[in-house]
Amino acid sequence: xxxxxxxxxxxxxxxxxxxxxxxxxxxxxxxxxxxxxxxxxxxxxxxxxxxxxxxxxxxxxxxxxxxxxxxxxxxxxxxxxxxxxxxxxxxxxxxxxxxxxxxxxxxxxxxxxxxxxxxxxxxxxxxxxxxxxxxxxxxxxxxxxxxxxxxxxxxxxxxxxxxxxxxxxxxxxxxxxxxxxxxxxxxxxxxxxxxxxxxxxxxxxxxxxxxxxxxxxxxxxxxxxxxxxxxxxxxxxxxxxxxxxxxxxxxxxxxxxxxxxxxxxxxxxxxxxxxxxxxxxxxxxxxxxxxxxxxxxxxxxxxxxxxxxxxxxxxxxxxxxxxxxxxxxxxxxxxxxxxxxxxxxxxxxxxxxxxxxxxxxxxx
Length: 364
Ligand code: TRP
Hints:
Helix 1 links the parallel strand 1 and strand 2. This protein is mainly α. It is elongated, with a radius of gyration of 24 Å. Helices cover about 55% and strands about 5% of the residues. Tryptophan (TRP) binds near residues 7, 9, 10, 140 and 149.
């Protein structure tokens, strides 16, 4: 069986380093591993509209931002097919058929949806499109017969629900769809990178994100004002790692080789952590070290972005081609789905013949 990747992001803002360590970095590695037969990366505008129906302009503006982030991180259109969800209407049609296989109760039990409903304060007034987006996501994944879905940890319930839909479909209509597997970061801290303020999640509204497109200076300022240990007042005080965002980021970004380059006092992160906990290591030194690592990682991305920003029409052309390829692929699956459901009336010569016979008999 061929190995196929599908994944994507909602274009509700520029991508930040949480997206990067959570999924983007991995996608580029998977792309370059050469192990996958096909790779589809989708800008999920239709899904973004499920809770931004009143603000389509926000989605419209951010499509290019996400595309720029993708390309500047190293996604290569020659290897990965980049496309826009709403330009593949077959996905909507698949979703409509899958809706019959899922109950409202099941949707309301989806932990990610549950949290999001709370966060957005929908109460009892949940937009139907929002509640059902896991079904639409199952359509996205199955349309491409994806075997592998590299995502952040918060997406696991979506993949689980997709697998259920696949099993239900295949059981009801015969083997047609492929059950995907989620691929989440191996490094636990990368699953949920906190905001620079130490809050659980990076979010634009909290203003606690470091964006892939931030300038060198902005990154430095954000790193130097990061949340650490509020009780670590004097350098000689023992410091705590618990909830200390700077050390969490180091867990996500730091490799031993960084110490040789930027902080030769220590051989590795464990030594640095031990010193911090003992007392005698100041926050500024740790932050400067983190800043050096972040700049090293982000500089090439930023440089590529600056170039790509001069090629906007070409990027739209890449997306347009990607949409065509994606559409052809999704149309094939939709044909198979309709055949399995036996709603492919005009292609079904046997149906026409049998019914002709039936009615001919009745007339006699
Ligand atoms: N839910 C994803 C997000 O919030 C975006 C998405 C839509 C997606 N369809 C998908 C991810 C299919 C993986 C597979 O970013």
